[in-house]
Structure formats: structure tokens, C-alpha cells
UniProtKB/TrEMBL annotation:
InterPro entries: PIN-like_dom_sf, XPG-I_dom, XPG/Rad2. PANTHER family: ENDONUCLEASE, PUTATIVE (AFU_ORTHOLOGUE AFUA_3G13260)-RELATED (PTHR11081:SF75), FLAP ENDONUCLEASE FAMILY MEMBER (PTHR11081). One of its GO terms (molecular function) is 5'-flap endonuclease activity. Residues 46-114 form the XPG-I domain. GO terms for biological process: DNA damage response. Coiled coil: none annotated. It comes from Suillus subaureus. This is PIN domain-like protein.
């Protein structure tokens, strides 16, 4: 996956979950200790010239904050929460064929029309990572038409625009939502749904869940453009990491490229890295492609 990213003419920052990430998701305790692959993955990413950063909390929230501030153009993740956190563009999958979700298109599409507040309300209605088991509405697909109609309600956006005094505000907001179900005063839904009030939990929406989406922990000092810019490919160290972690040859300390080449490592790397090197050079992306090499400069 990292090699695939290197073959894309772009600047890449890889962000990892931080210490303030939630300890419980969907009622299950989450280990806060980083997986054992985290450090080797960071080493590979840095060797390829990618910026590496530890988030304050969840990586998706940190990426969404960078997207909102214009530091990055898109987020690659399989977690749709990135859109709820406020990311402007989300790429699903990192294969040759990707699906691009744009916050503007989601809001402007005639059959969707979901603002950031609408996305938040959908997450609250259908349940997400931050809900305790049984803390959502248990909306099934037969009721999704109702959910979609509710999301068009003008009050949906206000959940994301009222951070101060949120607990008191939500009490009134929830009452208003119940009034919409019973009376449909603005005619947004088209008919009344008083029976759905029986499905509304007493604490809906949970303030802690709303805050987890609208005010997630993010770094006090956001990543800058300069941090992502002008990274270099360290070919020798990359060869060493491949030899060490993938057992491509016997354990050796980093040495000249010619040594790695004689052991076959460079031959194996060519399918993964050479296309990216050629693309970077041919397209002359915004940073110069340089390879650390004791013998022959590229």
C-alpha cells in the first residue's frame, strides 16, 4: 500500500491514532497500546519520503481537521467518520479504482442533500463508533426514507454550530425533533410518525457522542504545509528495511546500494518503487526527487 501511494504524484502524510483516542467503541474496549506493526510501518513511510504524524486522538479526526484547514486535499480511509468529522474529500480504497466522496457533492446532490450537520444526524440516528450498544435508534433500511427526510430538516446543521452549552441546547433540539415526528410543522417529511417516538432513547442524542464528533481531540499545533513538503526517498535504508523485515536476504546493516543489488533486493524493489521514481521525475512534482546513495546519484 505504501509503494502504491509512492507511485501517485502527490505529497503524503501518514497519521496514526494518538493517546486520546476513545477507549471504547461500540461497547467494546479498545487497546490503547499501538499495534506492533506501527513502528515498522512508520519507518517504511519515512524512508519513502512520507510525512509521519501521531494524532492527538483518532487519526480520521486529525485528517479531517487538516482537510478543513486546507493543509491536505483529501483523506484516504475506509472509515466514513472522516466525512462526519468534516473532511472535504474522502477516497475509499487505495487500488487503481477508487471512490471519491466530496462533502460539496453530498450536500448538493438532489437525492442526498446532506450538510455536515445532516451527516452527523445520520450517524446519531443509525449508530456509530461512539454509541454504546443500544444507544442508537435502531433504524432499519425500511425506515431510511424517514431518516433521509429528517436529515433535510433545517435544524440538523445546528448540532454542529452550537458547541457552547451543548447539553442545554440538545434538550430543546431533541424536543423539536420529536415535534417534527408528531406534527411535521414545515411539511419536510410529508406525513406524521408519532409511533417512532417509542424508538427514541430518553438520552437521545447523547451529548458525549455529539461531542465526540463535533469536538474530537486534535493536535494543539496543527501540521503545516512545510511539514509535509520536500521529503526525500532513502533508497538504501528502504532496501535494508525490506531485507530485515521481509527476509529478502540475510540481516545486514545499511550499506551501499551495490551491496543490496548484489543480494537481489533491488531486483525485488523495482516492481514496487521504480515506477514511482519515474513518475516523480517525469511529472516534476513540487519537491525534487533525491535518492541517498553512496555510489551513484540518481
Amino acid at each position: 500500500k505504501l509503494a502504491h501511494l509512492y507511485c501517485i504524484p502527490s505529497e503524503v502524510i501518514v497519521i496514526f491514532d494518538g493517546p486520546a483516542k476513545p477507549t471504547i467503541k461500540r461497547g467494546t474496549h479498545i487497546m490503547k497500546t499501538p499495534p506492533w506493526l506501527t513502528e515498522p510501518f512508520k519507518h517504511f513511510a519515512q524512508t519513502l519520503g512520507f510525512a509521519v504524524h501521531d494524532a492527538a486522538g483518532e487519526a480520521e479526526a486529525e485528517l479531517a481537521a487538516l482537510s478543513c484547514s486546507g493543509v491536505i486535499d483529501a483523506v484516504i480511509t475506509e472509515d466514513s467518520d472522516a466525512l462526519v468529522f468534516g473532511a472535504s474529500h474522502v477516497f475509499r480504497s487505495c487500488s487503481d479504482n477508487i471512490i471519491i466522496y466530496s462533502a460539496d457533492n453530498i450536500q448538493q446532490h438532489g437525492e442526498v442533500m446532506l450538510s455536515n450537520g445532516g451527516l452527523l444526524l445520520m450517524a446519531l440516528l443509525c449508530g456509530g463508533d461512539y454509541h454504546a450498544v443500544g444507544g442508537e435508534w435502531h433504524v432499519d433500511w425500511h425506515n431510511m426514507v424517514l431518516v433521509t427526510d429528517l436529515l433535510q430538516e433545517a435544524q440538523a446543521h445546528s448540532l454542529t454550530s452550537n458547541h457552547e452549552g451543548l447539553k442545554d441546547y440538545i434538550c430543546g433540539w431533541s424536543c423539536h425533533l420529536q415535534e417534527i415526528l408528531v406534527k411535521d410543522p414545515l411539511g419536510h417529511i410529508g406525513w406524521h410518525h408519532p409511533r417512532f417516538l417509542n424508538n427514541v432513547p430518553d438520552n437521545f442524542p447523547d451529548v458525549s457522542v455529539v461531542l465526540a464528533y463535533v469536538k474530537p481531540p486534535t493536535s494543539a499545533q496543527p501540521v503545516s504545509h512545510d511539514f509535509i513538503h520536500s521529503k526525500v526517498l532513502d533508497l538504501e535504508n528502504l532496501a535494508y528495511l525490506c531485507e530485515f523485515h521481509f527476509c529478502w536476504s540475510k540481516y545486514t546493516l545499511p550499506g551501499p546500494v551495490r551491496d543490496a543489488e548484489s543480494m537481489g533486493t533491488m531486483w525485488k524493489l523495482q516492481d514496487y518503487i521504480w515506477p514511482g521514481i519515474c513518475i516523480h521525475v517525469l511529472l516534476e512534482v513540487s519537491w525534487p526527487v533525491r535518492i541517498y546513495c553512496h555510489t551513484t546519484p540518481f
